[in-house]
């Protein structure tokens, strides 16, 4: 069982998993920031 | 069960894939206007699938928690995937044949079961993998529930724009949602693992250390009900702002030299969502450092102070109003995300997911209570001829009172009496104390 020090064989899987969830979240955050700036410009 | 060498950093994305999906529920409002025009529904009718979904979330989390503990996170995530996606598919069929009851049944009832089981599915597992940072671990997952709406809201809107807002366009949008979420949640099903029950040195999982209380026993303790009140009060106070955010900021500064435009009010609502999300991961992680009781003192005590500032001086300064509202919403999110770790501290990891499920009935109660208080009072104040910030003064003071009740309930939380501990663990504890 691994904690912070993951074996090298798992690292690509960890990266893939985080990109899988990170990419849509980044899209959502981008849209949020775009909308939130209207408070200061609108 | 995790094979040797399995990394615990694979578990948070597994949890996020489920929570980012089911968080779509809070973006249901995107579908409301198209459904109303395509099927000739009223605003109240078009809200039904969401409302039933939230009721089912509470019920399935409360009653399905023990099953989730018994069958494990992979089973729970599979159930969540099947229910949530097939809910969308049923809704797609309902829209295609213009049978609204099918949409309510699909999205609300079937999908709602997916919401509840999905919400609690990773909690217990995350706590077991991250015994050193349970607040951070559950904060990541529960942040995902907030993030789900941020993704779904623009995505669903774009889809409706492309497919059209008639019944066939809505049906196609539901279909794409159902299929996409099924694929997206599959990552969670494939990656989630429970840690091997081996006590490792350092920060490795030690699942059954400390007092362990079953879900059945937990609901008989005063600690559970104190936390229930804490969560209910904190959520009610947050919803008080969230529910009326756009009209509130507009009314507060209606008579000022710089009134708030519709688009600026929408920007304010978006900013509140960001604070809600940031609070989930930020405050929950902070609780690992300063302790659960202390962080709830902040949520409830400083939260009440922020409400008082809005009530007394909110209309004098826009930055002050915005800042106070952001802090309140960050505490709202933090309250949700920290509670599993608080439960773990009190009741152990033995059935923490099931206990969390039962505690979520506080959320359902607050979901009714918060909007009811704010809307009812604002309507009465309007009838009484009040306007501007005075429309909300009474509601704000009621929120302060509720937070004070929550604060007292938090102060009453004490360690659980050993008579509620599981017998096997009691023996283990006794042996340990005998050795010492």
Task: Describe the secondary structure blueprint for this structure.
The complex is a heterodimer of chains A (42) and B (436).
Chain A: H1 11-36, H2 38-41
Chain B: H1 11-22, H2 32-39, H3 43-71, H4 73-96, H5 100-120, H6 123-129, H7 134-163, H8 167-191, H9 215-218, H10 222-243, H11 245-252, H12 262-290, H13 292-313, H14 318-347, H15 352-359, H16 361-383, H17 393-411, H18 423-435
Provide a descriptive summary of the structure in words:
The complex is a heterodimer of chains A (42) and B (436). Chain A is mostly helical. In chain A, 71% of the residues lie in helices and 0% in strands. Chain A contains 2 helices and no strands. Chain A has helices at residues 11-36, 38-41. By secondary structure, chain B is mostly helical. Chain B has helices at 11-22, 32-39, 43-71, 73-96, 100-120, 123-129, 134-163, 167-191, 215-218, 222-243, 245-252, 262-290, 292-313, 318-347, 352-359, 361-383, 393-411, 423-435. The chains are: A mainly alpha (42), B mainly alpha (436). Chains A and B meet through helix 1 and helix 2 of A and helix 1, helix 7, helix 8 and helix 12 of B.
Strand content of chain B: under 5%
The unreliable regions of chain B are: none
CATH topology of the largest domain in chain B: Growth Hormone, Chain: A
CATH superfamily of the largest domain in chain B: MFS general substrate transporter like domains
What's the count of strands of chain B? 0
Spans of chain A of at least 5 consecutive residues whose pLDDT stays below 50 are none
Number of β-strand runs of chain A: 0
* Rg estimate of chain A, integer Å: 17 Å
